[in-house]
Design goal:
This is Tropomyosin. Keywords: Coiled coil. The chain is built from one helix and no strands. The mean pLDDT is 95. The chain is mainly alpha-helical. The protein has one domain. The N and C termini lie far apart (178 Å).
Amino acid sequence: MEQVKKKFATMRQELDEKEERIDHLDKLLKEKNIEMTEFEHRIHDFERKEIIQEQEIDALQDKVAALSHKLKESEDSQELAVQEVATLNHKIKMMEDELEAAETKAEDAKKQLEETMAELSDI
């Protein structure tokens, strides 16, 4: 009976040690679960920030595309304006040439008129 009591005491001590080990492991498991939850929260925060940054990037890319389109339109308008100015300058030059020719004809006509008047006054 003594051996049974020793055996029972040994088993009881082993059981206590195993329960202590289980309690210790449960405590570690709870700590790791808390850490995992904290990491999951951090991951969620990073994912949320990533989504926000991707949306900001998309918005900026849209703005860049719109500004590029406006720039292209402005460049096209500027090119048309430069061409129009060149055309107008050419027309002005032609008109100046016509004016000069008309002035020369008017001078010649005036000289002829003066000569004709001089001839008529001599008669």
